[in-house]
């Protein structure tokens, strides 16, 4: 009986205690401006969607306020270095059944008072596959890809365990 109770209790304790990240803002900053990422690819508009996803992720996961550059403590800037679509799988008739999207960025978080680079990331990427046969579209996959990439950027920049 006692061992059965422990078997049921252990998952509850582990989930209840669960490791949850804390978000650190360097130098006591309370606000950030997010510049539109430069786009060094041939795909227009991706940088706007990425910037939007990053703003949403910062606003939802950190204590930082998103501000215009004149009122911010720091500036987040970056560049979209790679974005592409690849065929992962074709059926026997040559019809594509699965694609992969990928994106890679470089970014910096810069103090506006000192111009010091507080945090940076190079060649930070994400990949995502999608299957058109199941109703997934490239646009939906792109939004999911950029949301995940924004989450990764925020985690790498602000997360402390």
Describe this structure in words.
It is a single chain. Strands 2, 3, 4, 5, 6 and 7 form a six-stranded mixed sheet that branches. The protein has 161 residues and is of the alpha/beta class. It contains three helices and eight strands; from the N terminus they run αβββαββββαβ. It has a single domain (21-160), classed as Lipoprotein like domain (Double Stranded RNA Binding Domain, 2-Layer Sandwich). It has helices spanning 2-17, 46-61, 138-158; strands at residues 22-23, 31-34, 38-39, 65-66, 74-90, 96-111, 117-130, 159-160.
What is the element layout, followed by pairings?
Elements: H1 2-17, E1 22-23, E2 31-34, E3 38-39, H2 46-61, E4 65-66, E5 74-90, E6 96-111, E7 117-130, H3 138-158, E8 159-160
Parallel strand pairs: 2-4, 2-5, 3-5
Antiparallel strand pairs: 1-8, 5-6, 6-7
Helix pairs in contact: 2-3
